[in-house]
Structure formats: structure tokens, C-alpha cells
Amino acid sequence: MGTKLLRVVVGIAVAVLLLVGGGAYALEHDELDKILKSTPANGPFWKYGTVIMYGKSRKGGMKPAVFAHWSHRAKYTCRVCHLDLGFSMRSGDTGITREQYLSGKYCGACHDGKIAFSVKDGSQGGCEKCHLENQKSLEVAFEKFAATMPPASFGNGIDWIKALREGKITPRNTLTPEQSSMTLPEKLRQPLKLGTVSPRSDVLFSHAEHFAELDCSSCHPEIFNIKKKGTQQFSMEANLYGSYCGACHMFVSFPMNDCRRCHSSMSNYYEAN
Ligand code: HEC
Ligand code: HEC
Ligand code: HEC
Ligand code: HEC
Ligand code: HEC
Ligand code: HEC
Description:
The chain has 13 helices and four strands. It has about 270 residues and is mainly alpha-helical. The chain has two domains: about 25-40 and about 180-273, Cytochrome C3 (Alpha-Beta Complex); about 45-145, Cytochrome C3. The chain starts with a helix and ends with a helix. The structure holds heme C (6 copies). One heme C binds near residues 194, 205, 210 and 214. One heme C (HEC) binds next to helix 9 and helix 10.
């Protein structure tokens, strides 16, 4: 009888610790506060993931070209652009020229007047659709789009995983008539428990969720070592500076502010801040 009571008491104490301490791993309050304070605010929903390219445009006497991830990712997986079409995942890195896209590369692969409005068409504000004069139009289009999507608290304010699961978006995985793509190896189907720097880590990583949008080469070997726990210096701080998970989860995918989507045992307290 006595041990049963003890178990109940211990059970309650653990539950309290979970709530107060913010997780089964009891991450320290001041450690968490420090990370929260150093997490950059992610700005208005419509602007998150919007890349503004001005280097070459300005030199060519044009307004900056504006590329919105939210509108494009609803139609295509990341793989289409970042693998098949060769866009870099670092802003400004691709170095797109007019000559390239006029010959069907990069934006020109789709903006050909068939799949989407053409890069050649200068009539009726054709150039200004990309070389945006006024970003207000993009904001208005976003509001209309977002109203139909499952909400989230950070990033675009859209839960993209849920949108995918509920069939609200059905992004294409290739531009050419669907090729059969590789299936995920059996051993990668179970979520991976991460704990390279922080043995108390409660973060699970799902290859399956990511493979739906990305290719192995999006992450290996540049961002992550392919050997389990082989990634060095894999701290939250590095994530916040845009390395590792932050390479996507600070710019396009739900950002680091959304602690609980990765740290499943972290309490709400930390999101309210
Ligand atoms: C229609 C094409 C397209 C799709 C689809 C797409 N991207 Fe991009 N992405 C781009 C372009 C263009 C850039 C800017 C490249 C440059 O400036 O050189 C970019 C840049 C990025 C960057 C760097 C952004 C920054 O601000 O530093 C990240 C990260 C990224 N993409 C991730 C993703 C992820 C994750 C997905 C899928 C959810 C995705 N992209 C889908 C075209 C695309
Ligand atoms: C994989 C195909 C694809 C690529 C690559 C692509 N787009 Fe698009 N884009 C589309 C489609 C489809 C639409 C919507 C159809 C339409 O409006 O004609 C669109 C719409 C747009 C719009 C209208 C506003 C919005 O966001 O919906 C802008 C601006 C735009 N694209 C800019 C770009 C730029 C800049 C690039 C290159 C950096 C680019 N796109 C690359 C397919 C693509
Ligand atoms: C689908 C989007 C899109 C459309 C439409 C578009 N552009 Fe561009 N343009 C870009 C992107 C992206 C860049 C590279 C931006 C940068 O790095 O500054 C660019 C760069 C340029 C540059 C400077 C680079 C160079 O190689 O000279 C000029 C000039 C230019 N565009 C002219 C035009 C004109 C004129 C039109 C209309 C006939 C037009 N663009 C329509 C996306 C577009
Ligand atoms: C995109 C996923 C993701 C999000 C969102 C995220 N984290 Fe992390 N966090 C990680 C990963 C991955 C690690 C390192 C795990 C390891 O050691 O392998 C980590 C580690 C940590 C650690 C352990 C100390 C350290 O530096 O390694 C703390 C504390 C932490 N995160 C707090 C936070 C807080 C607070 C937030 C919200 C502001 C947050 N995290 C959001 C993925 C995330
Ligand atoms: C979004 C990023 C991402 C993508 C995409 C991705 N991986 Fe990984 N992968 C990781 C991370 C993170 C780890 C853990 C690294 C660590 O612990 O240091 C990992 C670990 C692995 C491991 C070691 C797993 C174990 O249990 O030992 C293998 C093997 C692997 N990945 C193969 C692949 C293959 C094959 C693909 C494509 C089908 C792929 N990965 C796609 C991020 C990714
Ligand atoms: C190359 C880009 C990329 C990298 C690197 C990456 N992710 Fe993601 N992740 C995505 C995309 C795309 C999604 C889809 C949701 C979104 O975009 O908001 C996603 C979704 C998720 C989800 C949501 C799953 C759900 O069911 O809601 C979690 C959790 C997650 N990532 C954790 C991580 C962790 C932890 C790391 C680092 C070990 C990481 N991701 C690295 C691109 C990336």
C-alpha cells in the first residue's frame, strides 16, 4: 500500500516538474530565457519567406524582384526549385540574370506564358509583376490566401504540414510529368531522437515529414552529417543563427520562435513570451 501512495506522490511531483520546468528534461529557466531573448522576432506573416532580390535589378535600372515562398510552396515542393531548378537556399546566392531566365532557367522555367505569366511580356505591367513597385498587392493577395489555410502562431501564420495533410494544398513534386521518385528507406521511417549537444534533448526529427518536400541532398552532407549524432556544434544558438535546422526554420519553414513544435515537452509559458 505504502509504495502505491509513494508512486502517486512521485507521479504528481513529476507532473508538476513537467509543467514548471518546461519539459521532461527540465531545461533550465535561465537557459530558456536566454534563448527566448536571443530569438529574433519574425515580422508580419505575409513577409516571412519573401526574398527581395535587388543586386542585379538595381544595376539594370529595375525595381527589386520579389519572390514569395508562401504562394509558390502551395503549388510546388521545395525539391522542384531547390533540386531540379538549382535555386540556392541562401538568398542572393543564385545570382539570377535576365539572360538566364529568358533562356528558360530559374524563374523562366515556369514564367514562360504557359505555366505562369511570362518574363518576356513587358506589356500591361508585365515586368512589374516581379519587379514590384508596391508590395501592398502581395500583402492583399496573402491575406486572401491565408484565410483559407489552417492557422499557426509564427512564420507565415500557416500550419503548412496540416495544410498538406488536409489536402488544402497539393504541391507538385516535379515539373515534368510525374517521374517515380525514390521511396524512403525503411530504416529512416522511425523518428530520430536528437541529442548531440544536449543529452536532455526532447527533439524528435522525422525523415518522413521532411522527405515529402525535400531531397536527401537538401540536408546531407552540407547541413547535417549523415551519421547519427555526427553533427558537431549542434546547439540551439547555432540554430538561431541560421545553421542546421535554422537553415530552413528561420527563413521559410515555421521559425525557431515556435519552440513547442520541436520541443514537444516544453510548456506554453515559453510561447507566450
Ligand atoms: C518556386 C521555387 C521555389 C520553391 C517551391 C521553394 N523555394 Fe526556396 N527559394 C527560391 C528562390 C528563388 C530563393 C532565393 C534564392 C536566391 O536569392 O539566390 C529561395 C531561397 C530559399 C531560402 C533562403 C531564404 C533566405 O531568406 O535566406 C530557404 C531557406 C529556402 N528557399 C527554403 C525553401 C523550402 C524549405 C522550401 C519548401 C517548403 C522552398 N524553399 C521552396 C525558390 C523556391
Ligand atoms: C516552379 C515554377 C515557378 C518558378 C520556378 C517560379 N514561379 Fe513565380 N509563379 C509560378 C506560378 C504557377 C504562379 C501563379 C500563376 C500566375 O500568376 O500566372 C507564380 C506567381 C508569381 C508571382 C505573382 C505573385 C505571387 O507570388 O503569387 C510572382 C511575383 C512570381 N511568381 C515571381 C517569381 C520569381 C521572381 C521567380 C524566380 C526567382 C519565380 N516566380 C519562379 C510558378 C513559378
Ligand atoms: C518572373 C519574375 C520576373 C519577371 C516577370 C521579370 N523579371 Fe527581371 N528579374 C527577375 C529576377 C529574379 C532578377 C534578378 C534580381 C536581382 O538579383 O536583382 C531580374 C533581373 C532583371 C534585370 C537585371 C539583371 C540583368 O541580367 O540585367 C533586368 C534589367 C530585368 N530583370 C529586366 C526585366 C524586364 C525589362 C522585364 C519585363 C519585360 C522583367 N525583368 C520581368 C525576375 C523577373
Ligand atoms: C526546428 C526545431 C526547433 C525549434 C523550433 C526549437 N528548437 Fe531548441 N533545439 C532544437 C535542436 C535540434 C536542439 C539540439 C538537440 C541536440 O543536441 O541534438 C535544441 C536544443 C535546445 C536546448 C538545449 C541547449 C542547447 O543549446 O543545445 C534548449 C534550451 C532549447 N533548444 C530551447 C529552445 C527554445 C526556448 C525554443 C523556442 C524559442 C526552441 N528551442 C525552439 C530544435 C528546435
Ligand atoms: C531536413 C533535413 C534532412 C533531410 C531532407 C534528410 N535528412 Fe538524414 N538526417 C538528418 C538529421 C538532422 C540527422 C541526424 C544527424 C545527427 O544526429 O548528427 C540525419 C541522419 C541520417 C542518417 C543516420 C540515421 C541513423 O539512424 O543512424 C541517415 C542514414 C540519413 N540521415 C539518410 C538520409 C537519406 C537517405 C535522406 C533522403 C531520403 C535523408 N537522410 C534526408 C536530416 C535530414
Ligand atoms: C532543408 C530545410 C529543412 C531543414 C534543414 C529542417 N527542416 Fe524541419 N521542416 C522543413 C519543412 C519544409 C517543413 C514543413 C513545415 C513548414 O515548412 O513549416 C518542416 C517541418 C518540420 C516539423 C513539423 C512536423 C509536424 O508534424 O508538424 C518539425 C518538428 C521539424 N520540421 C523539425 C526539424 C528539426 C528538428 C530540424 C533540424 C534537425 C529540421 N526540422 C530541419 C524543412 C526543413
